[in-house]
Amino acid sequence: MAFWGLGLGLVALVFFGLIALVIVFFVLSVYNSLVALKNNIEKSWANIDVLLVQRNAELTKLLDTVKGYMKHERGTLEDITRLRASVANASGPQAKAAASDLLSGALGKLFAVAENYPQLRSSENFQQLQGRISELENAIADRREFYNDSVNTFNIRIQQIPDSVIAGLMRLEKKEMFKPALGTTEDVKLSF
Questions:
Q1: Domain residue spans in the chain?
Q2: Residues in the chain with pLDDT < 70?
Q3: How many other CB atoms are found less than 10 A from the CB of residue 31?
Q4: Which of 24, 117, 118, 125 would you call most buried, defined as having the most Cβ atoms within 10 angstroms of its Cβ?
């Protein structure tokens, strides 16, 4: 009978040990997945930043090309130069998003104004730069979507039980989505 009691105690010990092991593995799994999501957000933001730097480099070339043709459009060129600097100096997703959106709007205006300059439009260099900047704008939009998907997944996970308990212990907080700046969703009005 003593043997039977010892055997039951051992079985109970093994059972509770297995339950504890499952709980530890579950906690580690949730912890690791939250760390992966957090790092994925940082990676996706870094990818956007790379494209913003590339766009700024291409804008320098575009502005140099356009300056000779568009002597009467000095204000547009100055706006783009100023906005390009504000994108480079902005810190954090929201500030970069706002500055980037304003710059995208100014670029749209520049390309619309360029329609009034047939020599500029026919310039091979201008066409190549315009195409490259359009490609970068599309790539930035794609990366923004990936960033927002990553942020959304992260925010959902840190708010759901049981992940929220572990996220609280890790001191994880909601991340901000990459939102368009106010006014950038409206149609651009051009007057000639």
A1: 33-169
A2: 1-6, 68-73, 121-122, 180-192
A3: 15
A4: 117
